[in-house]
Structure formats: structure tokens, C-alpha cells
Amino acid sequence: MPERSLPTAASDVPEQSPAWLGIAVGLLVTRWLMPAESTASGATLWLVAGWLLLAMIWSLSRLRRWPLSPLRLDRIDLAVTLLVTPQIVSATWLIATGDGNGRAATNMVCEWISLLLAFVLLRRWFSKPADYHALTRVALAVVVSLSVLGIWQHHVGYRRAITSFQVLQDELDTAVRSRNISTARRLRAELAAAGIPLEGPARQLWERRLRDSREPYALFALANSLGGLLAALLIYSLGLLPAWKHSVWPETSRGGFFSRLSPATIFLVTGFLLISYCLLLTKSRTAWVGFAAGGVLLVGGRAMRWVKEHPGRVTLGASVPVLLVVAAFWTGGIDREVFTEAPKSLSYRFEYWKGTLGVIADRPLVGTGPGNFRQHYLAHKLEESSEEITDPHNFLLEATATAGLIGLAGLVACIGLILTGGRQRKTAPSANAGEQGDRDVPSGIIALGGVFGFVLAMVPGWLLEGGLDTRLAFVAAGFIVSWTGLPAACPDPTIQRRATLAARVTLLVHLLGAGGFSRPALMQLALLLVIGWRPWPNREHVSNSAPGPARLAAIGCGVGLLLVTLLAVNPVFENSVAVQQADNALLLRGRPGEAARLLHHAQQVDRLDPAPSRKLARLRIEQAGRDAASDEVFDQAIRAATETSLRDPHNWISAHDRARAVRRKWQRHRDDGVVRGKDDRLGQSSR
To answer: What local confidence, expressed as pLDDT, does residue 343 receive?
Structure first.
């Protein structure tokens, strides 16, 4: 007689569909395919909405399952919550008091919330070692393809960009000389659409960077961001070499060294070389130092033993970085100044940090608010310091400056809880423990999620600009090739923990001297490494959880999605569309009145962003500079500049624009008074 089946035991690892994991991987990958420095402007708010929507649908689907596993939170979740909460408090205070750029603060706090949400979900969904390694395999394939793009930028892309810009500038100069107004407007619009400043110091700085720089940046805006990403994932992949060794180079293979090389081994070595060479080309000294620190931690005390046991392999391995440096010198990728100017670069960092300490002293409790550091820093910038930085180039100081001492306390508590988390407890196997432990997500689903990330990254350009970014298409092809060629391996927990810890040290050392604490692309990587170091424990138990917490989670995500849509995504989208239309009206059609109307509409749809008011003020000031301008135009310029000052009170540009408008009006009245005085004297003399 068959036995009756026992009640199933549920795990507190929440249930998930492979499709959801694919979507989550897509959202994760998209972060690395968009400029990490554009978050304050709201360019990636739609990713925040995507995470909230995914979490809400998952929470609702959990209510359909029974028995319902409890949604538990542990000390690692608490650690990341303590990191994010001060940023939320600081942004809320800034918006409530109007003491800063509310749009930048709102956008940044939305990004912090999405990071917390992504961490909680991914830590549970990728708790199995095989699933997590498939996820990191996707990340490694992304950085290999980005490295290829970066190498192309250094050797080919910059020269092509200089040639294209020179041709465009020559056409513009010819059109201006021949008074071809329509062609000149079209060319100016093309320059503006490409993100090239049209005039002023910003244009000079842009031309100097294009002419003198050769550092690759891939799809980011700064080479330092790319360097931090490459260094951390390169150290992580080197930490997995023992696991890859057994999968692609088994000890039972016979023959010599080269006869044992498999295609997977060749592809793996090629990927290492591409990442390493691109990392050298970035000239990111902080990334290099971080890589060295992670390497020391990874090697530990085993270096001498390796030298004694395998001197040939150690010599071969040590010669690779030397050859890469020689190749970089030979191709002009790096030069002597990269090393000789290092003390000067460090002295610049000290200048940034001294100025940041002044900002912290002014606002010790809640800080400047996310996305508002630069406005306050300029008041404390040292006279000898030339750069107007947007972040302190140190994650400890940035956490303190943006969120005050509560931000520093949250960061310290986060690091402390993660470091003291202890080993995860193992539980006795249950009736179905083996079955659940073997049920891994197919790696193909996770790879498709990576491809989905490239599709998501292409959507904004296709919808807003009517075209596809060819760079993304080539990087996507490189990703597919890289993922196919990279070997699969499932390292044991010891190797996994050592590799993720070394990668985290690499990234944190890099962030001690570079910006990145407020850039979700790098913080996402840091939290992903935390997941590998402190994975979610798969505790088996009989579930008797009530549906109340799951309902609250679904309601919370739904409310969060609604708030983000109404307060961030929708106003930022309508604002950006109106501003783009205003630029087209001014540059392409030469209609300042229509441009002013569109900018006024952008002011109304987004009550927090100072950018439309600033553009409108400058447009009115230019109109007021004409002889036929009336007093009403001056008053409109002053009102727009005043509105800018209210929306961004600590930005010197706001006060400067208002002063320009008032001065122009005063000059006009003074000149009119002089003209009237001359007319009166002429009338009296004629009589």
C-alpha cells in the first residue's frame, strides 16, 4: 500500500518565476549600459519604476501560492537599509524646506530606493551558487564587451570623433560666413543634440577634452567609472580561476601545456587580457590601486608557495601585466606622466577633501541632500583648486556630505553588519530539501535576461531620438559571443567568498579616491558582491505564514510605483520633451517666442527642476539685450531668474542670471535717461 505524501515543507527563499529572474537580470545589465553620471537628471528613473513594478507583481503572485513562505529580513538586509535610509531622510528634509535642488534630490532618492529593492529581491532569487555564478557570468560577459568598445574608442573612436566634429564645425563656419541661416541653425541643432556646448567656457573645455584625452569610457561618461567596474570584476574573475581550472583544464588531461589548452581556456585568457588592457587605458589610478589591494587580498600568503611549486606558471603570469604595460606605452595608451603626475593627482584629492570638510561643518546633521553637493562645495573650494567637482571623490566623505552624520553612521553600521554577519547557519535537510536544492534556474534564461538588458538600453534612444545607438548593437553582439565562450563553473563557497571579498575591497579602495557612491551602476555592483559574500540562507521549515505581510509588500510596492510615476517619471519625461522641443524651436526654426512658451510649459509640469527656468531666464536676457526689447521682456527675465533661485537657491548660476537681468534693465533705463536728456537739451537749444 503506497504511503501518503507528507505535507510539503516550504523554504523562506521566496518563490520566483524564471521569467522574473530574466527581467531582473535585464534591469541589472541596463544599469551598466547607460551613463552612470546621469542619474541626478532623471535619465534612469524608468529603471526605478521597472524594479517597483517587478516587485509588486511578484508580491501579488506570492498570494496565489499556498503554503505561503514568510518574507523574512535578516541583518544583511538591515545593513543595506541603514545605508539607504539617511539618503531618504536628507532628501525629504531638502524637499520639505525647499533648501536645494529638489528635482536632483528626488531623482537620487528614487535610485537609492531601487537599489535597496533590487538587493532584497536578487539576494533571495539568486541564493543558489549555480544561479549566482550564472548571474556573474553575465556581468563578466558585459565587461568583456565593454572593454572591446573601450579599446576601440582609444585607438579609433577618438580620431573619428575629432574628424567628424571638425567637418561639422567647418560647415557651420561656412554657413555663418555666407549668412545661410537655415543651414547654420540645423548644424547648431546637430551639435546640441550630440551634447556639444555651443559656446562659452563649456565649449572650450569640451574641445580640450576631445583633443587631449584618449581614455576609454565605454557607455559611461567618465573613464573612472569604467575603471572601477573593470577592476572589481577582473579581480572577481581571477578569484574564480581555481574553479575554472577544474572545468576547462582538468588534471587528467595528458600532453604538454599547449596541447591541454581548450577553446574555453583560450577564450577565458582573451577576456582577461581585454579587460586588463582596457583597465590600463582608462588611466584610472584609483582603479589600479584598488586592483592591487584586491590582488594582495586574493593571493594572501600563498604567493611564495606558488613560486616554489609552479615557478614557470608564476613567471608566465607575472609577465602578462608587464607585457600589457609595454603594449600600452607603445600604443600611447599610457605615458610617463601617468605615473609622475600621481602625486599631483593625490594633492588634488586632498584639496577636494578639505573643501568637503567645510561643507560637512556647515551642514553636519542632514547634509546637502543627494545630488546637491556641488552647489555647497563651491563656497568652500580652495583658491588653488581649479576643478568644480560634483562629488568629494571619497565614498566616506560623500556619504557624510550628502546625508550628514546620520549618513556616515548608516554607512559605518552597514559595513559593520556585513562584516560581522557570521557564517550562515545550515539546517537539517527536510523531506524535499534535495529536490529544492537541485532546482536551479537554467543559465539560458539568465543569459536571455542579459540580452533583454541591451534591448531596454536601446529603447530610450529609439523612442526619444528616433534611432538606435550602434554602439549598443555592437556591444550586444560582443556580449553574446563573450557569454557563449566564457566557461561555466560553480565554485565552492570558500572560493566564492574569497573572490567576492577581494572584488569588494577593490571597489571600495577605488571609491576612496574616486566618485561613485551616488552612482547606481557602481553601487549596484557593490551590492551584487555582497550577495555573493553573504548569500541568503535556504532555511527549510513548514510554512504557516499569514498573507498579511505579503499583502503589505504588494501594497507598498504599488504605492511606491504610483509615487515615483507621479512625482518623478512623469514630470521629468514631460519636462525633457518640452525642453527638447524648445531647443528645436530656437535652433532649427529661430522662434524664441515659441521656445519661451515651451520652456514655460516645462516649468509648470515639473515644479522642482530649475533647468527650464534657467534656460528661460537666459533666453529672456538675450531678448532683452536687443534694442527693441520692452520693459516686459526685462521683467520676464527677472521673474524666470528669480524662479530659478527659488528652485536651486545655493547655485551661484541662479544668482548670476538674476543679477544679469537686473543689470541689463538698469542699463537700458540709464541709456534711455541719457537719450532723453540729450533730446531735452537739443529742444531747449533750438528754442
So the answer is: 87
